[in-house]
């Protein structure tokens, strides 16, 4: 696959009559102001690269996709990005379906790199979450050669991205309108009950069963018969738990409510790095709000939503992963878990900026010992990201 980046302009000028500060009949680059030169470079990139139509550009990222299409997309990401993207089956659902992630990062000859974890679709009905995981992968791959910071992070870090964790439940929501708002897994109920499924985000070994859960298997927040009763929760626990020393950040994507939740869900337990989590989270919600003007809030679940226990976010922090957040994407109640497709792109654009702020901070702290989130730096990062987004959006049409 051919990537579009600035070096392509050098080839472009040879066959289109443009050149940079040379003699001849073309346009001299030095004739333009700095702003004009930047615009010219952008136009050259668009013209030179528009013919390259890889899956990142052809796939309909502004539509919701059933599981078979997501699985086919994952395979194409691997095929089109050798040395940068791979996939792995790390678990099996109750109904014996594979749970897979995409691993994104420059291959370092088998070296175990520091990593970022992201999962989507733990709650089946929250379709915007898998859409965001796909959007996130697309953006990271498109920016790899054009955004210096993204390139640096993909060299230093591996990103484990699970587009759909609750595969059984997600497929169930696609059957018809009566199943569309199913939330839980699809495991068999206990003997005394007729309702299948467990809330996977109440099933992790993190103050399991203590607060904000139901023991009634027909309820949406049913926590299961015991912690890790569900194979989906066990798959995450085993893979992430075995790499807790390498994973720097755990991001789990949900909807709705426009919130950024941090540990812990129990109202009487505080994360040891609460102040840092809050500071980074505040920068992230500011970045999200600056994209389309949508208000996001950051805090613990008891402060902003309700107490709960058994969440994957809390479990990740308890095992020593220093940064752990739950994204609750759009909206605040108008559409709820049936967010229209025309809101996929703006929702993903703002969420990407929030994730980018967190990931950049985590990376710079680990590799440059930097713990500042300055306003000027944030503005510069946002401008760079929005410019890149404009470029990639134009190439996607």
Number of β-strand runs: 8
- Biggest beta sheet attributes: 8 strands, mixed
Query: Percent range for helical residues?
Result: 40-55%
Separation of the first and last Cα atoms: 18 Å
Form type = globular
Number of helices: 13
Major sheet: arrangement of strands? 1-2-4-3-5-8-6-7
Order of helix and strand elements from N to C terminus = HHHHEEEHHEHHEEHEHHEHH
Indicate the radius of gyration in whole angstroms. 22 Å
- Overall structural class, as computed from helix and strand content, comes to alpha/beta
Strand content: 5-15%
Mean pLDDT: 86
Could you walk me through the main structural features you see in this protein, from its secondary elements to its overall organization?
The chain is of the alpha/beta class and 397 residues long. Helix content is 41%, strand content 13%. The chain is built from 13 helices and eight strands. It has helices at 8-16, 34-49, 55-58, 67-80, 128-143, 148-156, 167-173, 231-241, 274-292, 301-304, 312-318, 344-368, 375-396, and strands at residues 85-92, 98-104, 114-120, 157-162, 247-255, 259-262, 297-300, 323-329. It has an eight-stranded mixed sheet, with helices on both faces. Strand 1 and strand 2 (98-104) form a beta hairpin. Helix 5 crosses helix 12 (344-368) and helix 9 (274-292) packs antiparallel against helix 12 (344-368). It is globular, with a radius of gyration of 22 Å. The two termini are 18 Å apart. Mean pLDDT is 86; it is low at 1-32, 46-53, 375-385 and 391-397.
């Amino acid at each position: 696959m051919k990537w579009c980046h600035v070096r392509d302009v050098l080839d472009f000028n040879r066959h289109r009559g443009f050149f940079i500060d040379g003699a001849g009949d073309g346009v001299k680059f030095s004739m333009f102001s700095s702003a004009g030169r930047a615009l010219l470079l952008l136009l050259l990139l668009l013209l030179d690269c528009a013919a390259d139509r890889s899956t990142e550009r052809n796939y309909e990222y502004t539509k919701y996709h059933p599981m078979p299409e997501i699985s086919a997309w994952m395979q194409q990401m691997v095929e089109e990005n050798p040395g940068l993207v791979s996939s792995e089956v790390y678990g099996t659902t109750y109904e014996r379906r594979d749970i897979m992630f995409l691993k994104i990062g420059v291959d370092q000859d088998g070296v175990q790199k520091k990593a970022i974890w992201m999962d989507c679709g733990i709650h089946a009905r929250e379709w915007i979450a898998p859409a965001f995981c796909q959007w996130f992968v697309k953006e990271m791959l498109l920016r790899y050669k054009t955004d210096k910071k993204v390139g640096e992070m993909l060299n230093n870090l591996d990103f484990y991205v699970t587009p759909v964790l609750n595969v059984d439940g997600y497929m169930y929501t696609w059957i018809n309108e009566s199943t569309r708002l199913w939330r839980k897994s699809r495991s068999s109920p206990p003997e005394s009950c007729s309702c299948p499924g467990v809330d996977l985000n109440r099933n992790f070994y993190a103050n399991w069963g203590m607060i904000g859960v139901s023991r009634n298997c027909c309820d949406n927040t049913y926590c299961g018969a015991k912690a890790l009763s569900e194979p989906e929760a066990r798959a995450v626990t085993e893979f992430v738990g075995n790499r807790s020393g390498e994973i720097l950040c755990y991001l789990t994507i949900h909807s709705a409510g426009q919130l950024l939740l941090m540990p812990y869900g129990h109202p009487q337990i505080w994360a040891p790095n609460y102040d840092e989590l809050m500071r980074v989270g505040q920068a992230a919600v500011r970045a999200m709000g600056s994209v389309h003007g949508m208000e996001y809030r950051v805090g613990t679940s008891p402060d902003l939503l309700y107490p709960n226990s058994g969440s994957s976010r809390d479990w990740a922090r308890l095992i020593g992963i220093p940064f752990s957040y739950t994204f609750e994407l759009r909206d605040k109640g108008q559409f709820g878990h049936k967010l229209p497709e025309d809101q996929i792109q703006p929702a993903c654009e703002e969420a990407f900026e929030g994730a980018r702020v967190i990931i950049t901070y985590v990376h710079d702290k680990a590799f440059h010992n930097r713990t500042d989130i300055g306003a000027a730096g944030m503005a510069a990062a946002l401008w760079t990201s929005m410019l890149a987004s404009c470029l990639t959006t134009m190439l996607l049409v």
